């Protein structure tokens, strides 16, 4: 009985599978026929011309609500400013640019279905990336599945570049490890006798903060700078006196902090209390914060920090960007807006170069291939990428000179001379 | 590891231990007087730190002057809080319910601070924030020394109040045996209120001392309450000298352990000591009957 039932059931299932298979074939044929009709229709009826003249639509999903809504809105402002600027200046390939922006509510599932929808239903010609690592990975996967070029404005974490994406490009100067490259280059070209001999590192237990400090550590160790202190502290640390004690005891020539904000402030005060005077002191993020000089007082002079973007940067297109953006929004752009604008510039450069902007795999692949091979001039400097999409640049190096934070490296972008011997703090 | 490094660590540990001692003294006082676990103690600490920062940013005067306002203010707030909120809890479940009540007070303070001053990290900018002087090769930062002196003076004042005044006698009587205290005519309700006020007043001093040498932000109090709770358990719940001694030992221990272990692992000393105490001597090293001898 049981065996019979089972056999019957299996037979039924086989039948069902065949039926589903057959209906799928029918549907597929129908779709092909329909597609054929559509494409022949557009090609035959002069539709090709209208497609050429119509706007280039760009699909984007952004976290406009939820956890990342603040930076998400910044990226939106940057994208919209870029589109307005392009359209005011004759468009892309002579065509208007039209943005189609969806809200993914900072949700990683939502962002994937958003890009599915943009590519499949809305038939966008190009896509731009969303904000933050968590959302970039699923979005890039969808773009990869459809063979789309995927340039993204935010997501510097190493995990993005180890997923095997071959369509992804990060539109910012550098990943965390490379932020200090210009400083490392500068130290490398100093005469051997003048270079720092010993270095102390203190980094927050955070992938980004550690990435910046350890990037410089690797470079300095290659040059033979001895690491005398290497401390990691949890993000909630407020008492830095013991770390400062070790640093002061080592009397390292250069102090490098993989810091966010309050940790840098507390660390600086703590080492000052112990009378430690480094010849160079570099901290990530904190010194570019407007609160920093208020907290540190007059002792900021000579403090070094890498920065991904500053409105003062002298890259050729930057002044135009800052002027256009400021006119549109009343305030100068910050890093989120700049990286969004950069994304636009990168894609536009590829589109202009290969003279196509449509969803066809050939066009998308030629855009990807072009970006692999070429360098693009952007508001954050010239950008080029490795095979995983890591930008090959470095962050500008800023330093407090005469009480104000100014770009000091590289020399071609500098607003002030680099202070190699930090004044006492 | 050089000798100067260790000497410096001991000095830093003593300075840190002094601050811990003051903060823990207040916390253990609440428990001693009324079996209240005061989770909001460190939230009041941060509130006092914010008031000191706000005072200095508005008037430009030294934050130490803010004590003239905050100490009486916190004393009154403590009395009001005890009379209006804590005393309404049922005695049978007082200890447990006081955790919930003071937890909510901590959240309210944190939320208000965030609402009024935003989550931005604040720091009082002092002309002497980085100044230090050298004693036997060890650097002593002026701000840390001020915090230590404040803590020592407050602990001494607390000791004198407890030992030399009638109110102190009544408070100790209330701690030792509330019923007997009532029988000899002590108004234990009022005394408990003042005791609570006294505890909060130490938070005002501690918060100001903290603000001298640290950046502050609304949720910082969660960082403090854990070690402070561990200190008062190790010292023996309700014992002020026990709390002070445990604070000093653990403060120095933390500073020294940071040399070989680093910051992340050194902070576990408080919890290792807590577990060890609960296993070996649950009443704490100065707890049980000893706690009542102050």
Automatic annotation (TrEMBL), chain A:
Gene Ontology BP terms: amino acid transport
Pfam families given in the database record: Peripla_BP_6 (PF13458)
Domain Leucine-binding protein: 55-401
Keyword Transport: yes
Gene3D superfamilies, alphabetized: 3.40.50.2300
Keywords, in A-Z order: Amino-acid transport, Signal, Transport
Keyword Transport: yes
Top-rank taxon, per record: Bacteria
Family the UniProt entry places it in: Belongs to the leucine-binding protein family.
This protein's name: Branched-chain amino acid ABC transporter substrate-binding protein
Organism: Aeromicrobium camelliae
UniProtKB/TrEMBL annotation, chain B:
Membrane-spanning residues: 6-29, 36-55, 67-86, 98-118, 138-162, 191-212, 224-252, 259-280
Pfam families: BPD_transp_2 (PF02653)
Main location: membrane
Example of a GO biological process term: amino acid transport
Superkingdom of the organism of origin: Bacteria
Keywords, alphabetical: Amino-acid transport, Cell membrane, Membrane, Transmembrane, Transmembrane helix, Transport
Membrane protein topology class: Multi-pass membrane protein
GO cellular component terms, semicolon-separated: plasma membrane
Entry GO MF terms: transmembrane transporter activity
Cell compartment(s), UniProt: Cell membrane
Full protein name: Branched-chain amino acid ABC transporter permease
Organism (species): Aeromicrobium camelliae
Organism lineage: Bacteria, Bacillati, Actinomycetota, Actinomycetes, Propionibacteriales
């Amino acid at each position: 009985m049981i065996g019979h039932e089972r056999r019957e059931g299996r037979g039924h299932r086989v039948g069902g599978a065949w039926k589903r298979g057959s209906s799928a074939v029918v549907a597929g044929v129908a779709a092909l026929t329909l597609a054929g009709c559509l494409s022949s229709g557009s090609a035959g009826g002069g539709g090709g011309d209208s497609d050429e003249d119509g706007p280039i639509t760009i699909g984007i999903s952004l976290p406009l609500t939820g956890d990342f809504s603040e930076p998400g809105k910044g990226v939106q402002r940057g994208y919209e400013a870029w589109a307005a600027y392009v359209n005011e200046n004759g468009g892309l390939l002579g065509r208007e640019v039209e943005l189609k922006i969806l809200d993914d509510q900072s949700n990683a599932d939502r962002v994937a279905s958003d890009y599915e929808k943009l590519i499949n239903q809305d038939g966008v010609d190009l896509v731009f990336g969303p904000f933050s690592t968590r959302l970039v990975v699923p979005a890039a996967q969808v773009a990869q599945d459809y063979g789309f070029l995927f340039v993204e404005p935010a997501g510097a974490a190493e995990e993005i570049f180890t997923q095997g994406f071959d369509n992804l490009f990060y539109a910012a100067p550098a990943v965390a490890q490379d932020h200090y490259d210009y400083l490392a280059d500068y130290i490398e070209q100093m005469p051997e006798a003048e270079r720092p001999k010993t270095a102390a590192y203190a980094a927050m237990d955070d992938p980004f903060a550690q990435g910046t400090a350890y990037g410089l550590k690797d470079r300095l160790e290659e040059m033979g700078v001895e690491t005398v202190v290497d401390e990691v502290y949890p993000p909630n640390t407020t008492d830095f006196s013991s770390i400062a004690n070790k640093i002061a005891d080592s009397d390292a020539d250069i102090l490098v902090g993989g810091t966010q904000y309050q940790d840098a402030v507390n660390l600086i005060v703590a080492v000052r209390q112990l009378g430690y005077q480094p010849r160079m002191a570099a901290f990530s993020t904190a010194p570019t914060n407007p609160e920093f000089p208020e907290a540190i007082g007059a002792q900021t002079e000579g403090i070094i920090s890498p920065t991904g973007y500053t409105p003062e940067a002298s890259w050729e297109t930057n002044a135009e960007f800052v002027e256009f953006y400021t006119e549109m929004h009343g305030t100068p752009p910050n890093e989120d807006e700049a990286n969004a604008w950069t994304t636009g510039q990168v894609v536009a450069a590829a589109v202009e170069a290969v003279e196509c902007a449509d969803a066809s795999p050939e066009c998308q692949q030629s855009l990807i291939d072009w970006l692999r091979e070429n360098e693009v001039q952007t508001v954050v400097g010239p950008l080029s990428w490795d095979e995983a999409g890591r930008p090959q640049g470095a962050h500008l190096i800023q330093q407090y000179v005469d009480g104000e934070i100014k770009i000091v490296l590289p020399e071609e972008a500098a607003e002030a001379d680099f202070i190699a011997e930090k004044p006492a703090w | 590891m050089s000798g100067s490094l260790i000497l410096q660590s001991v000095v830093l540990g003593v300075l840190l231990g002094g601050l811990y001692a003051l903060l823990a003294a207040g916390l253990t006082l609440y428990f001693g007087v009324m079996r209240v676990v005061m989770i909001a103690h460190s939230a009041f600490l941060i509130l006092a730190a914010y008031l000191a920062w706000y005072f200095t940013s508005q008037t430009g005067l030294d934050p130490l002057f803010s004590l003239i306002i905050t100490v009486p203010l916190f004393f009154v707030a403590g009395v009001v809080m005890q009379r209006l909120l804590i005393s309404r809890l049922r005695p049978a479940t007082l200890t447990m319910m006081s955790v919930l009540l003071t937890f909510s007070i901590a959240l309210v303070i944190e939320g208000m601070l965030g609402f009024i001053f935003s989550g931005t990290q604040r720091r009082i900018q002092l002309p002497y924030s980085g100044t230090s002087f050298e004693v036997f090769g060890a650097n002593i930062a002026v701000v840390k020394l001020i915090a230590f002196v404040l803590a020592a003076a407050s602990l001494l004042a607390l000791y004198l109040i407890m030992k030399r005044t009638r109110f102190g006698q009544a408070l100790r009587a209330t701690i030792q045996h509330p019923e007997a205290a009532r029988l000899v005519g002590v108004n234990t309700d009022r005394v408990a209120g003042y005791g609570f006020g006294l505890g909060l007043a130490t938070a005002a001093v501690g918060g100001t001392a903290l603000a001298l040498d640290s950046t502050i932000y609304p949720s910082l109090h969660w960082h403090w309450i854990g070690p402070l709770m561990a200190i008062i358990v190790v010292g023996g719940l309700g014992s002020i000298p026990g709390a002070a001694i445990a604070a000093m030992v653990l403060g120095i221990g933390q500073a020294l352990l940071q040399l070989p272990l680093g910051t992340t692992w050194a902070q576990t000393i408080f919890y290792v000591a807590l577990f060890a105490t609960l296993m070996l001597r649950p009443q704490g090293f100065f707890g049980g009957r000893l706690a009542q001898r102050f």
